[in-house]
Automatic annotation (TrEMBL):
<dbReference type="InterPro" id="IPR008920">
    <property type="entry name" value="TF_FadR/GntR_C"/>
</dbReference>
<keyword id="KW-0805">Transcription regulation</keyword>
<dbReference type="InterPro" id="IPR036390">
    <property type="entry name" value="WH_DNA-bd_sf"/>
</dbReference>
<dbReference type="GO" id="GO:0003677">
    <property type="term" value="F:DNA binding"/>
</dbReference>
<feature type="domain" description="HTH gntR-type">
    <location>
        <begin position="7"/>
        <end position="75"/>
    </location>
</feature>
<dbReference type="Pfam" id="PF00392">
    <property type="entry name" value="GntR"/>
</dbReference>
<keyword id="KW-0804">Transcription</keyword>
<keyword id="KW-0238">DNA-binding</keyword>
<protein>
    <recommendedName>
        <fullName>HTH gntR-type domain-containing protein</fullName>
    </recommendedName>
</protein>
<dbReference type="InterPro" id="IPR000524">
    <property type="entry name" value="Tscrpt_reg_HTH_GntR"/>
</dbReference>
<dbReference type="GO" id="GO:0003700">
    <property type="term" value="F:DNA-binding transcription factor activity"/>
</dbReference>
<dbReference type="InterPro" id="IPR036388">
    <property type="entry name" value="WH-like_DNA-bd_sf"/>
</dbReference>
Amino acid sequence: MKSEEQSLKKEKIASLIQDEILTGRFLAGEYLPPERELADRFDVSRPVVHEALLILQSKGLITMRPRHGCIVNDLSSSISMRLLTELYRNKQISEPEKIEAGLVEFRQLILTHIIKKLINRISRLSVKERYHLFLPLKNKIHFSRSEDIETSAIEDFEFYRTLIDLSDSPIFLLSLETAKEIYKYQFKQFLCENISYADRIPEYKQLFFNALIEADEENSIKVMIKLTQPETYRDAELDNSMRGGCRRL
């Protein structure tokens, strides 16, 4: 029971400090207060604070330097940081559609970076090895119940979460998690207005998956951009130029 309480405490403390980093209380290059000071502030033991800081380090927000302290990482060079900050500040707004354009840009910037990173990583692998690596993504291509909008929104989010998770990019994963509720809201809005197009989304995901297996960076990005644009699904047919470069497995 005590172990469970400590786990909850470290998660809570990590969340509070994360809030302060993302809202600018602690800036890039600054050191966080010493562990002893944080322990006094949150009324917990130093080991609990230390575990909370390890969580923040795993997310890429800080770097723990022995005998020096914890420094806030410079995230300004991350292509997602500007949008992450905007999404973080607006994650509980009552009208998520107000930042729709930002979310589309946010997703495409992140996924373009992720695709390039993954293609570089898998270029020396065989097709079978790539297939095995991306199998968790393949398992999330199809909706379990396409008529259930709520379930489909969650499953669509998990598809992209799995893709980012495979790239081992904690800051991008944090960005997507921050945008989760806004993302789900917009996806449900799209399906409500275009339910007849729901079956086409897995078709594009399959094309995207095939392009990844082929380690085809150009086509992967091309399909991904199509996949993330709502107007794509109002086209009469799938783009034949994208079909040609992909092989079904």
